[in-house]
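Dear Dr. H.,

I hope your travels went smoothly. While you were away I took the liberty of generating a structure for the chain from your last submission, since the lab meeting agenda had it listed for discussion. I wanted you to have the full record in hand beforehand rather than looking at slides cold. The sequence, exactly as received, is reproduced here:
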Amino acid sequence: MKKTISAATPLDDNQIRAEDQARVAALRESRGWTKRLMLLMTLIGPGILVMIADNDAGGVITYAQTGATYGIGFFIPALVIGGFIAYVVQEMTVRLGAVTHRGHAEMIWGHYGAFWGWFSLIDLVVANVLTLVTEFIGITVGMSVFGVPPVWSALGGIIVDAIILLVLRYRTWERVSLWIAAGNLIFVPLALISHPHWGAVVGAFQHWQIPGGFTAAFLFVVLANFGTTIAPWMLFFQQSSVVDKGLTVKDVRHGQIDTALGTLAMVVVALAIVILTGTVAFGRPGAAGYDIQQIIQVIGQRLGPTGQSLFALGLVEAGTIATIALTASTSWAMGEAFHWPKSINLPFQQAWRFYIPGLLSAFLAAGVVLIPNAPLGFLNLTVQVIASIFMPAAMLFLLLLLNDPGIMGEHVNHRWQNISAFTIVGLLVVLNGIYGLSVVFPKWF
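The corresponding predicted structure, in token form, is as follows:
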């Protein structure tokens, strides 16, 4: 549905959201499995979007570099564990958004004041711009396979993002984004036609070991994989998406199912990429390392031009869907922090302050990617590591909010959720600390 505006009667996002909620209420009161299925299909969206967008271009490149450098081995079980971690974190944003009807940035500013509000906002915006750099790396590298110059592919990515964000209201924006996200599944058949050694895949769970020993380079890749599995933008995006979609406490269960389905899709695709590159590129001269363009060439040599083209298209899709999610995440956070109109339901003329920050972040990131001779592969991994460094602080705010009975009532965290979440924070802190030591004292590793 197109967003329209009249000078006399500006659109009210609360009214639009109320109409969506009324439609959901009518489906909830209906009987029969078809109505229940329609209710589920209506309510799903934020969880699938955030998880598939998490398999962004930076994630695809990271998984490809991981498989090419370290093979199947260690990272197959690690990615399954990463999926569990992502679900634990993102499920909390569903409950927080559905109970409070407030976005993540708005909650932090409202409960912890301007200092921590600015801290979390700067943390998010910096991380989002850096992550957007990896999305445009993916878009430009993927389109280069088809002979498209980087400047045109970057501009095309910005135009697609802007049209989807500015023209569509939330419900249509979400459905269009889900159709784009479905393209992420292209990596699954690519992994199958690479004819992997399935015994080695199963054996990775039976004999979990570090390939080549525990080194600073290996730890760098581990942190990069964590950074692409959970990132600060995901907290802000899913909670704000839940609010803009109009989910209520009655919809929490469907939100959890939505997040679980998204997690399953994320893990399957991540495994497929590692299996693909671990099969066709691992151990081949020139494939190991950070050069994604070299890895794509090896895929073309092993799977032919069609396989290479499909991988490139998957990379472009991953960058496109993540760009859509990241720009929305930035806009939602800025709108919530400064009390601007903050809904994708609103037209640009009425909510221009809401839309501009996200689009500006995309322009800035595209400009960085177009710098001549930039080390794109290494830059991608570095951005993922930075995301893992920023994540503990974002997690602590989330946990404080989820454990406040005055905010959450009966929907506060259960004991097992707190244990899981604090274990995740502790793991990230320990890994980041070890990595810091490896940088300061490289001879120790």
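Two observations you may find useful: The domain at 39-444 is CATH 1.10.4160.10 (Hydantoin permease). Residues 202 and 309 are 29 Å apart (CA to CA).

With kind regards,
E. W.
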